[in-house]
Design goal:
This is Xanthine dehydrogenase small subunit. Its EC number is 1.17.1.4. A hairpin with a 2-residue loop joins strand 3 and strand 4. Among the domains are: about 150 residues, Roll (Ubiquitin-like (UB roll)); about 70 residues, DNA polymerase, domain 1; about 100 residues, CO dehydrogenase flavoprotein, C-terminal domain (Enolase-like, domain 1, 2-Layer Sandwich), CATH 3.30.390.50. It is an alpha+beta fold and about 500 residues long. The protein has 19 helices and 20 strands.
Length: about 500
């Protein structure tokens, strides 16, 4: 048992025994350490002005991640090295290639957002296999907002920075790995004080015992949602249990049958595995979950466990037939993912029980899986609607199995049972499409809120069925012409 968290900021090691479990990294850097280059903008993980790098040793490999310091708790950084804008210059005072490129390309105007952009760009240079095309750079910078430059100079700066040679961090890689290796002791961490209690379990067994002893403890993996409870909701969380580095929960297992993701696997880490079993359109939905900073912290299972009706992950996973793995003490059970969601804010989880992982089966060759997200902004926005579909189609065109799931249409992510019944056992043709569209109108009674009206949600949900038909229905010219006419008449062109 250890009674302090240990991590580096730059080249300085810190051991904290009395930090509040929900103290954000942003506040600690600015107020306790005087490192004011990291800026506070939105304080909810949207603008990227607070972006820093978190470096971890995973196996024998250093992994560099851009994260939002405003919703990253200091208590989550045990065993890591944090780099801020103050660390980017080389030891001799020369500018980092990213900084020099921002100067050369006039990538900064008012300057408030610049530190966050620089940190995202430094992390981008460390990413494996990052393409230098504009689409890849836009994706990398989607979590950083700027109101002055119009982004074009920043994109040019990133292109220039990608062509530059090694930086001083490359020269320090062995030293960084050695210092992080020295922090590993395999101990469970326990802190307690007036500001609350923190537990960092070393193993899944330790986590199970902690949750049995205190079922009201709040499990935190990436804090991309819980962080907002603190910064915006001002909620008091007396006992935080951070699981982001529990080895048992970081497993990614790929097999001929499918993929298993442990509860601490982030969206960014899971992306390649999910893309391997889901077709490209669904991999694109995964890319649009938050920003790089959010996907670097937020976990697949955290997205499930929070039970939000507009979480992007659950509808896709439900349509794919995912199973949820739950644990309470030594007892484990596996349920269909859709059965986990009971009502708004209520899940099928007993006191002391927690999500241990999720398994997603590999689609059969005759199954098509598709998902589409509809939101006001393309990047880094919450869904108004997310529709996911899995159809098993026999050689004669008959739909033998249908799974249709939606987010944003009900109080929980939910399957469209009437729509599925209208599809199954029928030929995948325009008559079946029309029946399924009508059934879709009866499947849900969505609310009207700031993101979309009841009418809009129903209409777009039905139009996504038409889009599915256009994507994987019969390919003769008459059907395609008819589909295009139906899409235009229904307003589908507005959502393409």
């Amino acid at each position: 048992m250890r009674h302090g968290i240990r991590f580096y900021v730059g080249n300085e090691c810190h051991t904290l025994a009395d930090v509040a479990p929900t103290r954000t990294l942003l506040d600690w850097l600015r107020e306790d350490r005087g490192l004011t280059g990291t800026k506070e903008g939105c304080n909810e993980g949207d603008c990227g002005a607070c972006t820093v790098l978190v470096v971890r040793l995973e196996g024998d490999r250093l992994v560099w991640r851009a994260v939002n310091a405003c919703i990253q708790f200091v208590s989550m950084l045990d065993g890591a090295q944090v780099l801020t804008i103050e660390d980017v210059r080389a030891p001799d005072g020369s500018l980092h290639p990213v900084q020099q490129a921002m100067v050369d390309q006039h990538g900064s105007q008012c300057g408030f957002c610049t530190p966050g952009f620089v940190m995202s760009m430094v992390a981008g240079r460390k990413a494996d296999g990052l393409a230098q095309d504009e689409h890849a750079i836009d994706d990398m910078l989607a979590g950083n907002l700027c109101r002055c430059t119009g982004y074009a100079p920043i994109v040019r700066a990133m292109r220039q920075a990608m062509e530059a040679g090694p930086d001083h961090f490359d020269a320090q890689a062995h030293a960084i790995a050695d210092r992080l290796r020295a922090l590993r002791d395999g101990a469970t961490v326990e802190l307690g004080g007036p500001a609350g209690r923190l537990t960092i379990p070393a193993t899944g067994d330790a986590l199970a015992q902690t949750m049995l002893a205190d079922p009201d403890a709040r499990i935190v993996a990436g804090a991309t949602d819980v962080g907002l409870w603190v910064t915006k909701g001002m909620r008091d969380l007396p006992h935080i249990v951070t699981i982001g580095q529990v080895p048992d929960l970081r497993r990614i297992e790929c097999s001929a049958d499918g993929v298993y993701l442990g509860a601490a696997v982030t969206w960014q880490e899971a992306r390649a595995a999910l893309a391997d079993i889901l077709p490209q359109p669904d991999a694109e939905v995964i890319r649009r979950i938050g920003s790089v900073q959010v996907r670097n912290s937020g976990t697949v299972c955290g997205n499930i466990a929070n039970g939000s009706p507009i979480g992007d992950g659950p509808p896709v996973l439900i349509a794919a037939g995912a199973k949820l793995h739950l644990r309470r003490g030594d007892a484990r059970r596996v349920i269909a993912l859709e059965d986990f969601f009971i009502d708004y804010g209520k899940q099928d989880r007993a006191p002391g029980e927690f999500v241990e992982g999720v398994s997603i089966p590999r689609p059969t060759p005759d199954t098509v899986v598709r998902a589409w997200k509809v939101s006001k902004r393309f990047d880094q926005d919450i869904s108004a609607i997310l529709g996911a579909f899995s159809l098993t189609i026999a050689p004669d065109g008959t739909i033998t199995n249908a799974r249709v799931a939606f987010g944003g249409m009900a109080a929980t992510p939910r399957r469209a049972s009437r729509t599925e019944a209208a599809l199954e056992g029928r030929k995948w043709d325009e008559t079946t499409l029309a029946a399924a569209r009508q059934a879709m109108m009866d499947d849900f009674a969505p609310i009207t809120d700031m993101r979309a009206s009841d009418w809009y949600r129903r209409t777009v949900a039905a139009n996504l069925l038409t889009r599915l038909y256009a994507d994987c229905g019969p390919r003769d010219a008459r059907a395609q012409t008819s589909v295009r006419a139906a899409c235009t008449a229904a307003g589908e062109h507005a959502h393409g």
